[in-house]
Amino acid sequence: MDTIVLKYDARNPIAKKTLDFILSLGVFERTKYSTPFAESDDDIEKGRVYSAKNSDDLIKKCLR
User: Fold this and answer.
1) Domain-by-domain residue ranges, the chain?
2) pLDDT 10s digits, 2-55
3) Rounded to whole angstroms, how far apart are CA atoms 25 and 38?
4) b/e per residue, 20-58, with b = 16+ CB within 10 A?
């Protein structure tokens, strides 16, 4: 499963209706986090965090 982050103006009624329609299709799900740290914890639990041994290892990982 991929994650897509959408930024929109929550005061724009067209944007809100469009997002509500997309969510009503049942194909997508909304993930709400109580704090930004909760999102980071989720990344750690799902293994989306990389720890480099040293700077060379980090550069090799970035250049893949």
Assistant:
1) 13-62
2) 777 788 888 999 999 999 999 899 888 887 778 878 878 888 888 888 888 999
3) 27
4) eeeeeeeeeeeeeeeeeeeeeeeeeeeeeeeeeeeeeee
- The answer to whether 42 and 33 are in contact (CB under 8 A) is yes
CA angle 31/34/35 to nearest 5° reads 110
CB atoms near residue 1 (< 10 Å) = 4
Picking from 5, 11, 15, the residue whose alpha carbon sits closest to that of residue 36 is 5
